[in-house]
Amino acid sequence: MTDTYLNLVNSGVTKKLAQQLGLPQPAPLRRYRAGTPLVDGPVLVLGRGKDADALAAVLAGPAGGAPGSTVLDGWDLDVHRHASPDTRYAAVVVVLTDVEHPDQLAGPVLATAGVLRGLARGGRVVTVSREATPDDAPALAAARQGVDGLLRSLAKELRGGATGNGVVLREGVPVTAPSTLGAVRFFLSARSAFVDGQLLTVDSDAGALPASWDRPLEGRVAVVTGAARGIGASIAATLARDGATVVAVDVPAAGEQLAAVANRVHGTALQLDVTAQDAGARILAHALQRHGRLDVVVHNAGITRDKLLANMTPDKWDSVLAVNIASQLRINEALLTSGDFADEPRIVSLASTSGIAGNRGQTNYAASKGGVIGMVRATAPLLVPFGGTANAVAPGFIETEMTARIPALTRQVARRLNSLQQGGQPVDVAEAVAFLASPAAGGIVGRTLRVCGQNMVGQ
Amino acid sequence: MTTVVLPSVPALGGLYARGAAATGRLAVARRVGRAPRTLPDVVHEVRGVRADADHLTAYQHLVGESASDRLPAGFVHVLAFPVAFAVMVRPDFPLPLLGLVHVANRVEQHAPVRLDEAFDVRAWAQDLRPHRSGTTVDLVAEVRVGGALVWRGVSTYLAKGVRLAGRPDDAVRDEFVAPVPTGRWKLAADAGRRYAAVSGDHNPIHLSRLSAKALGFPRTIAHGMFTAARALADVGAVRGDAFTWTVEFHKPVLLPGTVTVRVAPDGPGTAFAGWDARSGRPHLTGRVDPLR
Amino acid sequence: MAPSPRKPPTPTAPTTRRALVLGGNRIPFARAGGAYAHASNQDMLTAALDGLVARYGLQGERIGEVAAGAVLKHSRDFNLTRESVLGSALSPTTPAYDVQQACATGLESVVGLANKIRLGQLESGIAGGVDTTSDAPIAVSDRLRRTLLDLSRAKTVGQRVAVAARLRPKDLAPAAPRTDEPRTGLSMGEHQALTTAQWGITREAQDELALASHQRLAAAWDAGFFDDLVTPFRGQTRDGNLRADTSLEKLAKLRPAFGLGLDTPATMTAGNSTPLTDGASTVLLGSDEWAAAHDLTPLAVVVDAEAAAVDFVHGVDGLLMAPVFAVPRLLARNGLTLDDLDYVEIHEAFASTVLTTLAAWESDQFGKERLGLDGAFGTVDRARLNVHGSSLAAGHPFAATGGRIVATVSKELHRRKQAEGRPVRALVSVCAAGGLGLTAILEAA
Fold first, then answer.
1. NCBIfam families under this entry (chain C) (predicted)?
2. Cβ separation of B182 and C313 shorter than 8 Å?
């Protein structure tokens, strides 16, 4: 979908006019292209402790690692440990894992403040902190939980397509755990273009760093439901770009578009109604027979049947729940009990910000999407013994055929109701899905990652 | 018997003009009682006739034959018949040309004539005999290649209302019962003109509605030999190289028109019939049988 | 030089191997003038190929050969199959050729490629067929065509004027494609009406067969049987001709359409005859080695095939009766009888085509006199006949029907063998214009 407003405020006369009128100034977002650098410029790593040193070492270390050493494969970035004046930073990583009292936040936070004005367009602020728990000393918990409010507010202040996101480590998870590095890298990269103001928790040191950051899904077989169009088609394309062999699934009636998607991504098309009782068995049989394995299942198929609850019909309620949550539960059960979904498997489900914050007219949809959030939280632990996990992605306003049908004015308002002041693209959702499907996300267990440009509703 | 050797096969168009004049003369002569009552004792002959390849192809395509270098028996008729026709326009021929109706035709083909072969044609009239509605006569044409008889055609014509001496034999024709069809010919309005173009037979009854009306037909009618040639083509390769091909013409086919046909094995050869499916009345019936 | 002693010929054992049906794909068949009214043969064949490629992950694959065809074809489509391959997701280095055997085109494509695979000449192949009656080729009249050709050959202005002067206004009227038999001038329906009358097939029997076809095809769709056999196209997601709600009462109300001029009652209606249909189908074939290398499940083996033809021109047999002669020869060569077949697929050109075929096989006299047997050839168990419906319900885009039947029955054979673990066989029989018939035996792989 074209966002005409976004184009207008970024060009010529209309750009100037918008500035003078104080209209929202959405910036074109930088998006991932293979072969482009992770970040466009120097990266400032703030923080004093050994976690900051360890992380800075990875960011600055040579690609390929030192021969014969156990040092991690470095990312070869231009890393500064102290802000130098007049430097335009592409990213700031604020390591706060060692703060024990709210008083200790001032140092790194104010150091961050000094470089924000010079942050590059599309820049990144990433905090790395530890989770506050009821067992913590009150001051420790206060400091750790304070990061949450800090990050969310900071993100709202960023402009020019810059984003702020946080990685929250549970107790005992090292800063160099695969999922910590994976999450930091995801937030630094253009893959997270429309993820803003989010804190993603790393639960364990499970998972593995990929042999290639450009093709983390090499050799993996992924099923994407609802793949014929929109976000599903983009997920299929993104997983394939990252190296996965894709089985594109959609209802038989969508077969023509599904075939086109499968052919574009060099995968296979499986015409299947996910609500069929044997859908899980058929998906597994197809993947095993045609591709020898099944590693990733992306539950993307979903429908909306909007109605105020007072006007809700059983038909509208049942069909939404059947497609959006019941089918996922049934397919997961089939996969989990098959014994053939046990080699570091990944389930990624599509939730929605409606499932978090609620949306007028979408009680059925929000119930199903809230259900997805609960489902992945409870499913992930079942996969952990196999090195697997399940997580969800909750999109906000995404420019799709579906949102294109929203009345024009409502659509314009909906687009601006987030920190990036624009709608996301299907590929933004797909990138988050691809990250959660990757080997590096193995330590992220049952979480829901929002892809909403920091929508003003909900958490 | 006198033999008249013609320099070439005469054009039928000119013969029709002469025939029309002769018909007029004959009518006058009959009124004054000096019309001839016997056939001229004469044989017309043309030597060294050759077919033209384009002409042959046009004929073959029109009647549904494939364009081989063997002349269809009906095409030999087209080439040889004007020689016989020349006999019919002689002043001493006893029947009026205009109004003569082609009622039957019989061809014996001993061997096919090839495109590269020159052949000689001899033709005469014989067997003038009474018929229940007039008088009939046989026009015979023989075709020889290198002196050997390869093709012999006998075309029977009826002069309606012309009474000569003698009584007709009272052979009653079998009532026609329409059989199970095997096919259908859809004949376009210009079928007469198109066959006229390949056969040279520009009899006005085949050419336009107006000229046909002048001669008593509501519309143009198809050439009998055209329908007979299509039937022969429908018989196909089973007819072999040596065969007899006989046909009787009944009700004329008005153009445009649809003829329901049956062409099917029958005894030693193949029988064919064409009829009007609505009235059940026949247009033509005939057979093709191996010669021997 | 002394002549070298002649070597004795080394006898070579036949080294043929199995040719497998590995899958298929078609687009839903649409009624003429319906969803595909503006789609060309090439559009539809490309869509069917692309769906096959998507289902089996053949993107960029160089297939041994693609053989397909159309019965009604534009002259611009002289290389229809190759052009469709070039427009598809297959490798552009995939060779292709066109096949045409009227309504048997699709099955002949399967048989031809299967034989090449058996010989070791090919490892893989895609057979197909497509037809549109909505976008049928309209030609200029013969006279206009000849005149235009002569004009292009004319050298002087005078010659050109003379040639052009031959044209008459009516020569400019277009010539619609003929569906009549060229040698008899009768349409297929009129021919079949003669055969129907000859065998005394009743209206009721025909309507019952048509009803069964619709009911069985509808049931297969409802069960999702076609989910991995069909890819939608242009918004058409099911066969457009399918009438799941038809009934004997509705069928009985239709007026006869063929055989009106015969002295027996006309029994053939639009309900028990196939309508004009647009569509395309493909079948993926390969050797055991190729299937294994591509992780494809063999569904069926193409065992053998037999063609036949009848002399309908001279009324010896009905136009569509050739399979009646082909099947006894085919089964005898393979040491089989009708009882050895678990599935019998007889293309429903008309309901009465199937019924006259069965009647001829059940006739003692016909068996003795025409088939050279001791008596009747045999009886087909109706429960094994066209189990998922056939052309009466699905429609019949001429060249696409063979591929539809082969893919459908191959899937069914595989399913049955999985369930019962014993050899399972099917007969496929397709009648065609020109008095042709093509039949084949498939066996679950």
1. AcCoA-C-Actrans, PRK09268.1
2. yes
ipTM of the complex as predicted: 0.85
Last-in-domain residue among B170, B195, B230: B170
Instruction: Evaluate whether C352 touches C206 at the Cβ level (below 8 Å).
Output: yes
Q: Considering only A410-414, B164-168, B230-234, which range has the smallest mean pLDDT?
A: B164-168
What is the structure's pLDDT at A305? Answer: 94
- Other CB atoms closer than 10 Å to residue C416's CB: what's the count? 18
Residues B107 and B236 in one domain: no
C388 is annotated as an active-site residue: no
Spatial separation of the C-alpha atoms in residues B177 and A192, rounded to whole Å = 89
Give the up-direction half-sphere exposure of residue A291: CA atoms within 13 A in the CB hemisphere: 28
Lookup: tokens for A324: 């959006």
Q: What's the number of domains chain B is made of?
A: 2
> Strands C436-444 and C300-309: what pairing?
antiparallel
Which residues 108-137 of B are in CB contact (within 8 Å) with C?
none
Instruction: Specify burial of residue A170 (Cβ count, 10 A radius: 0-12, 13-18, 19+).
Output: middle
> What per-residue confidence (pLDDT) applies to C1?
46
Give the integer Cα–Cα distance in Å for A418 and A395: 12
Residue C15, pLDDT > 70, answer: no
pTM listed for this prediction: 0.87
- Shared domain for B131 and B204, answered yes or no, is no
Q: Which two tokens stand for residue A226?
A: 């609802």
Nearest Cβ partner of C314 from B184, B185, B264? B264
Distance CA A138, CA A118 (A): 36
Q: Chains touching chain B at 3 or more Cβ pairs under 8 angstroms? A: C
Chains near C with 3+ CB pairs less than 8 A apart are A, B
Contacts of C185 in chain B (CB under 8 A): 183-186
- CATH number of the domain at A30-202, out of 3.40.50.720, 3.40.50.11930, 3.10.620.30, 1.10.10.60? 3.40.50.720
* DSSP result, C68-85: E--SS--GGGTTHHHHHH
Verify that B160 and B181 share a domain, yes or no: no
**Using a CB-CB distance cutoff of 8 angstroms, which residues of chain A are in contact with residue C89?**
263
Q: Given B155, B170, B185, which residue is the final one in a domain?
A: B170
Both tokens of A448, joined, read 């829901």
Residues of B in contact with C194 (CB under 8 A): 180-181
CATH superfamily of domain region A221-451:
NAD(P)-binding Rossmann-like Domain (3.40.50.720)
Percent of chain C having pLDDT more than 70?
Answer: 93
Q: Which of residues 362-381 of C touch B (CB under 8 A)?
A: none
- Cβ <8 Å between A292 and C295: yes
Q: Do B184 and C316 touch (CB under 8 A)?
A: no
What was the pLDDT predicted at A304? 93
Domain that holds residue B27: 1-170
- Tell me what pLDDT residue C150 has: 81
CA nearest to B277 within chain C: C261
A1: confidence class by pLDDT, cuts 50, 70, 90: low
**Catalytic entry in A5, A32, A89, A365:** A365
**A39-69 confidence digits (pLDDT tens):** 999 999 999 889 999 999 999 988 765 555 4
Tell me how far apart the alpha carbons of residues B130 and B165 are, in angstroms, rounded to a whole number.
7
**Which candidate in C103, C191, C347, C414 is catalytic?**
C103
Write down the domain spans for chain A. Answer: 30-202, 221-451
What integer is the mean pLDDT of C269-286? 95
Question: According to the model, what pLDDT value does residue A4 have?
Answer: 74
Residues of C in contact with B277 (CB under 8 A): 261
Contact between chains at A255 and C232 (C-beta distance less than 8 A)? yes
- pLDDT class of A2 with cuts at 50, 70, 90: low
Query: What is the three-class DSSP state of A297?
Result: strand
Cβ–Cβ contact C168 with B under 8 A: no
Element (H, E) at A183: helix A178-188
